[in-house]
Amino acid sequence: MRDSITNRRIGIVGGGNAGLICALILQQAFPQYQITVIKSDEIGTIGVGEGSTEHWRSFINYVGIEPSELIVAALATHKKGIFFEGWSDTCPDYFHATAGLPEGAPFVMGFNVAYAKMLSEGLLLTDHTGQGGIRENKVPAINPHQSVNQFHFDTNELNDLLTTKARSRGVVFVEGIVLDVNVTDGWIKSVRVMGEEKNRVADFWIDASGFNRVLMSHLSDTKWNSFSEYLLTDSAIAFRTESDPNGEIRPYTRARALENGWAWEIPTQTARGNGYVYSSQFCSERQAVKEMENLLGLEIPSYR
């Protein structure tokens, strides 16, 4: 590490959304640091619709991205909840609202009077809260973005937006595949990028290369910890379909239980991101594709 704490160099390997989010947060927190993202256009993003959690609103607020800008640039839509369909043989389908508590309901240390009353009367909470209209594809007419802390967006368009933001704020982008990683005494010192004569040096490295583990795979004290004993759904396919022909966009994510796992449907402004998370112990990839084709009533020409 160099002596001057105001002149650090941070290297990020991976130009997907995870790497770009990391770069923007670090640039906001440490504007005096030199932040470099090493990426390759040969390695694309997954390219299906994505849905955020509540932390996304905190992120865009922190780095100064307006919700309206996100919606325009990333073809984003509101995510007001998640609809769990067919997950139980004895209970009704469950709608998990993400946009807040019933209007005017007192809330003290995790105890909500209105919720407690409905539970005592055997009422399904999500049928009687202020978010009931969401299931009918409705959103608030006044300040519609204000109450939203989660979104659906097009992965590729979001990547373009985050890249543009990062470049405009001084983040350096290096195009190329990492060919080698120089590790000394357990620390990553530099990387060799295809097409460059000199190694890229940084004081701190972040591996945002996903399952490729470009940096992590060179560290001897790291290993893959499998949770297959607990997580039976270990495989997935992802693909896009056209938007609703009626022009409606659901303001929520669909999560449908299937024979060997569960399927998601994420609506953006121009398409729907779909996927099937399944167990390879009970289902092959071809069977998973066939099951989704039967569910949606269409042929899936390509998927990832």
Automatic annotation (TrEMBL):
A molecular function (GO) term: monooxygenase activity
SUPFAM superfamilies (UniProt xref): FAD/NAD(P)-binding domain
Pfam families per the UniProt record, alphabetical: Trp_halogenase
PANTHER family cross-referenced by the UniProt entry: FAD-BINDING PROTEIN (PTHR43747), FLAVIN-DEPENDENT TRYPTOPHAN HALOGENASE (PTHR43747:SF4)
Protein name as catalogued: FAD dependent oxidoreductase domain-containing protein
Organism: marine metagenome
